Amino acid sequence: MASRPLFILYLSLILFVYLLIVTFYYLNDTLPTPLPVEIKPTNEEIFALQDNVRIPFRTKMECDGYNEFRGIPFEQLWFWPSVRIFIGIWSVADKYEIRHLIRTLNLKQRRNLAGDIVDFKFILGIPSDNNPELKLKLKAENDTYGDLVIDMVENMNNGKGYYYWKWIAEQLDTTRYDYVSKLDDDSFIHFQNLALNLRPLTRGHLYYGNKSPHSFFIRGTIEVLSVDLAHLIASFPFKKREWNGPEDVQLGAFLNKHAKSLNTIGENCLIFTDPRIRKVRRKMWRPWASPNSIAIHWLKDIRAWKGVIDLYFSDDN
């Protein structure tokens, strides 16, 4: 008789182990598998996919932009009041050719704006190696074009974001603008499409751009703020712990912490990574561009810009 309780105990243990095994396999079969971490490709890998390759192009994106999703078709955006935008294009001191190309394309775009105002300047850090020849070249460039802002030692992820927005608030005449923005110099921005998509939006508390899914920040490809948010940033003293790190993440964290009201709008359909580089860069990727696209990111080599010129400037004289 004493063996019967032992038998029941053994049977219970076997059943318990069986249930554990079944549960383990069930959970592993039903829970989503985490995506692998994307390894950032080299510029050479990217350009190999862009060289002499046209950017895929269709008359409409495969997704809806923010306004279209809200029921405002692109054609109706022309009837909204025009906007005034300042764009600070973050560049590196020795990238003369890229700046000259961007400057040429942007000046052409400004001449064709339909009532909107878009001004731009290049934001550069002071070269840390104290290269006198480089400084002379920058001086000559600025004397010629007057569109360089050289205001701090180059430090992309160690406070440059804070000091840029502080410069906006304190050195720029912000009464002339509804929105101020930061753009990378490896991104093409379509001035008219940006202005049109901003027209229906609020002129206050706006934080706009391509938003990282399930996150709190706008990606640094282009970050658009209403003017009041730039003044909010400037009203706080610099704290390294708030601004030490990726500038787009730190900006999002700061605004979410300090802004009493924040209207964060993700424009994930019309701001995207170059469709040609899907194999090596999945973030922000879209399969093609369209006439309504706002920004195309990851144009690291000046020759990669040929695809943009073919799409949006081929009819220029």
TrEMBL record:
Coiled coil: none
Compartment(s) of residence: Golgi apparatus membrane
EC number: 2.4.1.-
This protein's UniProt keywords: Glycosyltransferase, Golgi apparatus, Membrane, Signal-anchor, Transferase, Transmembrane, Transmembrane helix
Main localization category: Golgi
Pfam families reported for this sequence: Galactosyl_T (PF01762)
Annotated organism of origin: Rhizophagus irregularis
The keyword Glycosyltransferase appears for this protein: yes
Similarity comment: family membership: Belongs to the glycosyltransferase 31 family.
GO MF: hexosyltransferase activity
Enzyme class: transferase
Record field: transmembrane: 7-27
Membrane topology: Single-pass type II membrane protein
GO cellular component: Golgi membrane
The protein, known as: Hexosyltransferase
